[in-house]
Amino acid sequence: xxxxxxxxxxxxELHSELRWQCxxxxxxxxxxxxxxxxxxDVGGAALVGFFNFIRPHVVQIAGTCELAYLGAHxxxxxxxxxxxxxxxxxxxxxxxxxxxxxxxxxRQIAVMTTPIGAQVVLARMQRHLDQELAPxxxxxxxxxxxxxxxxxxxGEVGIGKSELALELVSRGHRLVADDxxxxxxxxxxxxxxxxxxxxxxxxxxRGLGIVNIREFFGAAxxxxxxxxxxxxxxxxxxxxxxxxxxxxxxxxDHLDILGISLPRLCLPASAARxxxxxxxxxxxxxxxxxxxxxxxxxxxxxxxxxxxxE
Length: 310
Known about the structure:
Elements: E1 4-6, H1 7-18, E2 21-24, E3 31-33, E4 48-49, E5 59-62, H2 64-72, H3 77-80, E6 87-90, H4 98-106, E7 110-113, H5 118-133, E8 136-140, E9 142-146, E10 149-155, H6 161-170, E11 174-177, E12 180-187, E13 190-194, E14 202-205, E15 209-212, H7 213-217, E16 225-235, H8 239-243, E17 251-257, E18 260-268, H9 275-290, H10 295-309
Parallel strand pairs: 4-5, 5-6, 6-7, 10-16, 16-18
Antiparallel strand pairs: 1-3, 2-7, 8-12, 9-10, 9-11, 12-13, 13-16, 14-15, 17-18
């Protein structure tokens, strides 16, 4: 579902930071919408910008330079007010020409003014709209921060994901979210996991009930968001299925979330396996891979070298 934000809500959320005032608000509230990372580049940062003849913005920022240009070139008024314009932000406490103001009112364009510099306003609005309009999806699982690597633990209900998360936290790692993870695509290849507000600090463990991780382990055991870099799926496998797993590189595939392909490692669950140690090793392995290392290639090179020496 396409994300959107109304101009009234945008004004309220940034009012304390930008200290802006509303000079004109159309009777009908306008909505800004779009995917910041869509191919047509509609939404988020792409919605906001300075005066642009070629690709007009939905939200236009006007500072000293822009208003001076318009004053010197009144014939550019039509291009300065394109049909898609919904909000004009006047920065640096610049005075608004009466003729321009009437034109804005006639076209039902919202007008706001702020004493802050145009570049600062532009950067803050772009960042805010990127966050608000970024695509998002709720995913079942447990998200933990292990050695700085965001791991999404998945598996069937009752497989032991929360118990594993509790053991990892007891070993000094951090919990992000239990049971429900809000995934947000903040950049073309960056997916972050967030904890929904009602679930923050809590972990539900079968047989034990609700556990307040902050109370048990302190504030350092909790983090409210983390970039997801690896999915670890816990599976209940039979002995024959375990025997079929590639012994050199494990059972690895990919999981697609919001158009981002994440590496997924499958770990068999059994009483004889220490899953917490395996998950820590998986986090270290992912860090090595992202740093350019290839442990399998190193192993094969070492074997070839050893055979050659013999």
